[in-house]
């Protein structure tokens, strides 16, 4: 085990002991390990072994796993884009996130989509192009750098304005993502078999 791993284990051990309001002497007595050995473990100056950690973790009611460093997971999000009705949607957050984030590309269209309503809340930011946002009785044009936030129970629809696509970053809460961009099952080709995209 590396020096940094020992130091981290010691810090976690000390934090677990202190959170239970135990002194070194009290933990020493309950775990049948000398106080000096515990002190050296907490300082990262003593090699941790199963023989030492098992009685300590039993007294503290924690797992050995709670004391050990784990490799930092790969933070990259690798989810396929999906295309439906001309829209290209790229998930930017991992599956199961509390907040769902997407990059959405709206193609130019002669006929704007129908207004829709559903549970949820949405925040969006225009990256490039011009986005037409119809929200209730409002008909708004959003340019690059502009953002909007609205309750999706208000009738709304979005489309590109002009002759070029509009690209946005869109963030939904869980219910908004489930209904507003319900993508269905993604296939290997990055297409979706079911869902509504408004």
From TrEMBL:
The UniProt entry, under Pfam families, shows: Cupin_2, HTH_3
Q: State if Disulfide bond is listed as a keyword.
A: no
Annotated HTH cro/C1-type domain residues: 13-67
Task: Identify the InterPro entries for this entry.
Answer: Cro/C1-type_HTH, Cupin_2, Lambda_DNA-bd_dom_sf, RmlC-like_jellyroll, RmlC_Cupin_sf, TransReg_Diox_bact_type
- Per the UniProt record, the source organism is Gulosibacter chungangensis
Annotated Gene Ontology MF terms?
A: DNA binding; DNA-binding transcription factor activity
Q: Tell me which SUPFAM superfamilies the record gives.
A: lambda repressor-like DNA-binding domains, RmlC-like cupins
Keyword DNA-binding listed: yes
Q: Upper lineage ranks? A: Bacteria, Bacillati, Actinomycetota, Actinomycetes, Micrococcales
Task: State the name under which the record lists this protein.
Answer: Helix-turn-helix transcriptional regulator
GO cellular component annotations of the record: cytosol
Which keywords appear in this protein's UniProt record, sorted alphabetically?
DNA-binding
